[in-house]
Amino acid sequence: MNKSITLASLVFFIMFSSGCAYFSGSPGEKPSDTSPKISTPPGQKQYWNNASLFGPVPNNLKKEGDKKCAMDGNGEAIGYHPRPKKYDGSYFSGPGYLCLMI
Fold first, then answer.
1. DSSP code of residue 59
2. The whole model's pTM is what?
3. Kind of pairing, strands 96-101 and 75-81?
4. Domain extents for the chain?
5. Which residues is 91 bridged to in the sheet?
6. Which stretch is the leader sequence (predicted)?
7. Which of 5, 39, 33, 34 is nearest to 19 (CA)?
8. What residues does 22 pair with on adjacent strands?
9. Up-side HSE of residue 63: CA atoms within 13 Å toward CB?
10. Phi, psi of 47 (to 5 degrees)
11. Rounded CA gap, 48 and 19, in Å?
12. 42 CB-side CA count, 13 A
């Protein structure tokens, strides 16, 4: 049980220190000047408000993005944004990834 609590805390920290959520749409050619925002409240499955605000995942961040997306299942990072917003409008401390769940 203690391992479950530790794992849950780790997942919570990672999910809320950088953005990772499911997609609705597809990423654009480059990250937009407008930040994507999580459109669902905490405690629910997280979705971005606009997938086209993301650009492609840089090669040097692909492994990190895939790892963060996989935390909610068997996911893959298909989009990247350097400055995404949380549901409350504040910024994540790290990048955001658009996840395709496979």
1. G
2. 0.74
3. antiparallel
4. 28-101
5. 85
6. 1-23
7. 39
8. 47, 99
9. 1
10. -130, 145
11. 9
12. 9
Q: Which two tokens stand for residue 51?
A: 């997938």
Q: Which two tokens stand for residue 36?
A: 């994507």
Return the amino acid letter for 88. D
| DSSP 8-state code for residue 87 | T
For residue 43, the 8-state DSSP code is T
Distance, in Å, from the CA atom of 20 to the CA atom of 43, rounded to the nearest integer, reads 14
User: How many angstroms separate the CA atoms of 9 and 81, rounded?
Assistant: 25
CA-to-CA dists, residue 71 to 34, 35, 53, 90, 101, angstroms: 26, 23, 23, 23, 11
Name the token pair of 12: 């919570």
Q: Which sign does the torsion angle of CA 87, 99, 73, 71 carry?
A: negative
* Amino acid, single-letter form, for residue 30: K
Average pLDDT per block of 10 residues along the chain, 102 residues long: 40 44 71 96 90 96 94 85 97 94 72
**Order of strands, sheet of 96-101, starting from the edge strand that comes earlier in the sequence:** 19-22, 96-101, 75-81
